[in-house]
Amino acid sequence: MLRTRFTEEFGIEHPIVQGGMMWVGRAELVAAVANAGGLGFITALTQPTPDALREEIERTRQLTDKPFGVNVTILPSINPPPYAEYVQTIIESGVKIVETAGSNPEPFLPYYKEAGIKVLHKCTSVRHALKAQKIGVDGVSIDGFECAGHPGEDDIPGLILIPAAARVLDIPMIASGGIADARGLVAALALGADGVNMGTRFLCTAESAIDQKVKEQIVANSELDTQLIFRTLRNTARVADNAISRKVVEIEKAGGTFEDVRELVAGARGRRVFEEGDLDAGIWSAGLAQGLIHDIPTCAELIGRMVAEAEELISARLASILA
């Protein structure tokens, strides 16, 4: 058993988290992670309405009696979704863990706290992690530059970012970015983290509700098969290398603006990749961890394997160095 501050305070068995992923964080995957002893998050905005989120929470409860959470990512938008209604739905549904990301979660923290909900906030820098701690979150998930999605603009990899954050934080911290196996888990613990968050690795599991062709492409890809888009817009995102992401980078390098790539990066196109398996339909998030992924296990197989191998690494290989 790998017991950490994170497992103790968030009430889970293993220090392994499946964070929120747009179009991916659905009941089947979340429940499978929970049943395997990890912590899974439903992605609130994958559901088109707060009522649909309520139904997804209930579907998850039918599949597991273990703890799980809901991710609420707040991003700038011309037509923002009704965030307050989604938050109210989470509270009314009795969910006890929320993962927040994007904008500052402070406006909603009093409501979460009043409902006895623990809040895990995703950060990409030490300064943001310290701010999250100051406003009262219960834990932080810190993303190194290796991660899929938005790694921030500091370009600090986990080998530096994790211990830098661990040195100044008092609340539990989990590490994210480039982690896909027991070696990453043990390394994160050694660097001062209390657990790990994985996105790309959980994309590529049997219970992940994305098309099989996407999973097979992740297995085929290496750590070289990502693109960084929106660099010139100071809104960097790491996505899988495909015809669309290469085109976006090309347009940016030629001096293009967001308006020039808007149609290419539309969320509806990315959704088609996951649901239809058309790998060039749009952009889709994937991290450098692709280079460490060589199979498509069930969540139980993945988490069980990670924990067993981590225990072996700690008790045998690393312990032998002291002999």
Task: Describe the model.
The protein has 323 residues and is of the alpha/beta class. The protein has 2 domains: 206 residues, TIM Barrel (Alpha-Beta Barrel); 60 residues, no CATH class. It is built from 14 helices and 10 strands. Strands 1-2-3-4-5-6-7-8 form an 8-stranded parallel β-barrel, surrounded by 5 helices. A two-stranded antiparallel sheet has the order 9-10. α2 runs parallel beside α3, α3 runs parallel beside α4 and α8 crosses α14. The longest helix is centred in the last third of the chain and has 23 residues. InterPro entries: Aldolase_TIM, NMO.
Give the gist of this structure.
The chain is of the alpha/beta class. It is built from 14 helices and ten strands.
Number of domains: 2
Any low-confidence stretches, pLDDT <50, length ≥5? none
Strand content: 5-15%
**How many alpha or pi helices?**
14
Going by helix content, strand content and strand pairing, the class is: alpha/beta
The largest β sheet comes out as: 8 strands, parallel, barrel
Percent of residues in helices comes to: 40-55%
- Number of distinct beta strands: 10
Give the CATH topology of the largest domain: TIM Barrel
- The CATH architecture of the largest domain is Alpha-Beta Barrel
From the alpha carbons, calculate the radius of gyration and give it in angstroms.
19 Å
The first-level CATH class name of the largest domain: Alpha Beta
**Could you tell me the mean pLDDT?**
96
User: CATH-wise, what's the superfamily of the largest domain?
Assistant: Aldolase class I
Pfam family, one: NMO
EC number: 1.13.12.-
Keywords: Flavoprotein, FMN, Oxidoreductase
InterPro entries: Aldolase_TIM, NMO
